Amino acid sequence: MKRQRPKGKRELWSGILGALVAGCVAVLVWLAPASLTQGIRQPAIDFISNLSAPPETDRVAVVDITAENLDSFGGRNLSRQRLAELIGEITRLGASVIALDLVLGEPCDNAQAGTTELAQSIADARLTMGFLLSGSLSGAPPVHSPVAIDSKAQIPAIWSSVGAETSCAGFVEAAAGLSAMSLAGDFDARVRSVPAFVLVDNRAYPSLGLDAVRLAQNTGVIFLIGNPPQLRVGGLMARLDGAAGMHARFSTLEQMERRTIAALDILNGQVEPEQLSGKIVFLGSSAPELGGLRPVSNDPLRPSVQIHADVAANLLLGSAPILAHWSGAFSLLTAVAFGISLSFIAVTVRPLAAVGITLAGLFLWFSFCAIAYHRLNMIVDPFLPALTLVIGAMAGSAFQFSAVRRAEAVIRNRFEQRLPAKVVAQLVAEPDLLKLKGEQREATSLFTDIEGFSTTAETINPSELIGLLDGYFEGLTGIIITRGGMVDRTIGDGIHALFNAPVDLENHAQAALACAQDILDFTEYFRHLPTVAPYDLGRTRIGIETGNVVLGDVGASGKVDYTAFGSAINIASRLQDANKRMGTSILIGEKASSYIKNVDLVDLGAIEIRGIGMMHAFTPKS
């Protein structure tokens, strides 16, 4: 007889193979183009970012021309007279800076009603005016907000354009600052990073939020320095990415509501000075008609004025998260370490324990990423390490499972493996025991069968057939044992199970019915799995009956089969078959039904049971 390898060696090789699989997956995913992985990677970061609300500041407010009040401001063509009154009132209430998230374009003739008044109100306020990038060859607008760029700063992907869509020249000249309010969406159009700087005709301009902070800091110049690039505005610093962008932390809906004031309330005198005094006020609109709604990580329709307000809040609080230059290497090393560790852990513990350890590892890893994000303002990619943690556990478990199955083949061949776990354990513990003592007891019998399986089997090659049945039987066996039953034997594509054998089981008929319902749920799930669905596996039929059975070992010393005999077993088998005629999935015999409580059963009346005669049959009410 061929000697088995020592258990420790088997586990070692399983762990090594699992680690190799996990390591290869980690490297392949790390090397894969971002376009292939960002669809999973970025939502994982979004999940982390939305676990907790960002820090909140009372130095930023938003004045919103709402959709409900848009008509009061002249509709889509905003009334310049009303805007002049609104900006003047915001200034009177003590706002330190106004950031205008609106382009006030043509007509620019001073004869246009309210144009002169609006220009004067802009000049009286400390106001930075936003513009949009444009593909037209309009050239660069005037520079009101100077940017000094260090020669060492490397920003290879900075957003640039040949032109800009600006407000009328009179308004621009009157403004204290001119800044970009264009926002770039990611692969799914969601805004996650806001450009701190843009280039128009090779001239640098700050974003609206950044320029508003510049004015509030009483700073003339914004600096872009170093590699990796950083911006400095007054005493504030922030790290940028290679596109000169800031990863923004977006306020919650409740936080937005607290800082937002309806523009009409200001004009109606319903706002107290302390609500705006000394604050950076972002003036814009949430009206869809003005086209300023953009999706962000926690909101499918976020007004752009709120996004710019979040950028200013991030700068003031130093809460903008940073994607460190070393984060990619850190994620790869962590992923490889997780994959190797979980591979070896999975081969040394039971499958359920491996699942528990894997879930605990995922929880701890995502907790670390959340702490890094919300406490340290560091973006750590949760995706790759989490993936390899799961892959490592699965690969280690799979290789160990395969090795264990091969090592246990001798035991399965000797003891026919169709015995319940308690009996197998007893035989393994007492190898000199040739037979188990027979007994008679009341038990509930449960038979299963796959509808039309004979036809299905003719279309599947033998290896696929065995693999299909192995997965099917593994699922049913687990359910039966979980419900306290004993797997007596398999018969073709069916299983016979007993409840209340070989040990007592309270409410065994009830347990058998619950098991049957679980089996139906599992088999419906199993037969629709992508790997199983092509085989068009039929539904499972089940018969249940209670009665006295005789249990015991049957067979010679080299082949032990613990099994049962009795009329209830025959009836359960026939009830299973009768499902074909009755159009049901579960049929329950008379005695079993009398033991089942708190379950609605439908009496199908007396039906002919092949080889038994007429008897009442029941099925659970759907």
Helical region count?
19
Q: What fraction of the residues are assigned to beta strands by DSSP?
A: 15-25%
Uncertain spans, ≥5 residues at pLDDT below 50?
1-7, 409-415, 427-435
Which value, in Å, is the CA radius of gyration?
Answer: 36 Å
How many beta-strand elements?
26
What integer is the average pLDDT? 84
- The structural class is alpha/beta
Name the overall outline: elongated
Describe the largest sheet.
Answer: 7 strands, mixed
Distance linking N and C termini: 54 Å
- Percent helix among the residues? 40-55%
Textual characterization of the structure:
By secondary structure, the protein is α/β, with parallel strands linked by helices. It contains 19 helices and 26 strands. Strands 1, 2, 3, 6, 7, 15 and 16 form a seven-stranded mixed β-sheet that branches. Strands 19, 20, 21, 22, 23 and 24 form a six-stranded mixed β-sheet that branches. Strand 2 (97-100), helix 4 and strand 3 form a beta-alpha-beta unit. The longest helix is centred in the middle third of the chain and has 26 residues, at 351-376. The two termini are 54 Å apart.
Which descriptors apply to this entry?
single chain, 622 residues, alpha/beta, six-stranded mixed sheet, 26 strands, disordered N terminus
